[in-house]
Amino acid sequence: MDSHKGTALPDIRHTLVINAPIDKVWDAVATSEGIAAWFMPNTFEPVLGYEFILEAGPFGQSPCKVIELDPPNRLSFRWDKDWTVTFALEADGDKTVFTLIHSGWDADTVTKFNQSHTDVRERMDQGWGGLVRKLAQYAEG
């Protein structure tokens, strides 16, 4: 982001109860194979500080870095230069409460594709809703 602080936009948050034990959901969000099954191809490794790539289709390769790793409860990574994505998991018996948090939105910031965070955030919020449901289907399968 730019060095000046602009107008912060709310984090994207999606919470869903997944009918699968926490270890199974963790494997879906903290392994390269799991992430590829519901999100996108990647070079992820569950190692703090590890730099990896998300293959974002028409948007090309997005550089990322693991910044928090607390198995099987929390994983955070920097996504490109602007964002942080967090996967938070909480066991609820034989189910898992999964929360996705996508932060770093700023109304005064423009992406490397010359799109405002305001516009991109709206599309990403909708996209994450579908992806979280896809994650649940994958983990429950």
Automatic annotation (TrEMBL):
> Which CDD domains does this chain map to?
SRPBCC_CalC_Aha1-like
Q: Which domain of life is it from?
A: Bacteria
- Cited InterPro entries: ASHA1/2-like_C, START-like_dom_sf
Q: Where is the Activator of Hsp90 ATPase homologue 1/2-like C-terminal domain?
A: 19-140
> Entry's Pfam families?
AHSA1 (PF08327)
Q: Which family does it belong to?
A: Belongs to the AHA1 family.
What is this protein identified as? Activator of Hsp90 ATPase homologue 1/2-like C-terminal domain-containing protein
